[in-house]
Amino acid sequence: SIDDEILKRIIRICSELWICLKKISHIYIQVEPCDLRKGIDGYAALVNSEFNMDPMDSNSLYIFCNRNHNKLKCLYYDGTGFWLLYKRLESGTFKWSKSADEKFLEISEQ
């Protein structure tokens, strides 16, 4: 069984993430498939070099998808550190738009 203290920490961390995610006003989606073996530093460098943006912008979420469109990773900076979220579909694929002119798509709150 999980120790009560560990469970409390997990609940606190999940609560913090939920509060942080509600502050996001911009979502940037990389159009081209991405190598999902990268870690936080790799994605932060990608945001900086390919998107020409600051990965430490706490109002933005950056989304990357693999070639098969069945896995994605999201990078988010909450003001104290980075979150790297990972989702793998057991079946099916994510619907992924491809824009020939842009490296990323932006979704913003308006």
How would you describe what is shown here?
The chain is built from two helices and five strands; from the N terminus they run αβαββββ. The chain is of the alpha+beta class and 110 residues long. The chain has a five-stranded mixed β-sheet with strand order 4-3-2-1-5, with helices on one face. The protein is globular, with a radius of gyration of 15 Å.
> How would you spell out the order of helices and strands?
HEHEEEE
Biggest sheet architecture: 5 strands, mixed
* Molecular shape: globular
What oligomeric state best describes the polypeptide chains here?
A: single chain
Short description:
By secondary structure, the protein is of the alpha+beta class. 26% of the residues lie in helices and 27% in strands. It has a 5-stranded mixed sheet, with helices on one face.
Key traits:
alpha+beta, globular, 26% helix, five-stranded mixed beta sheet, 110 residues
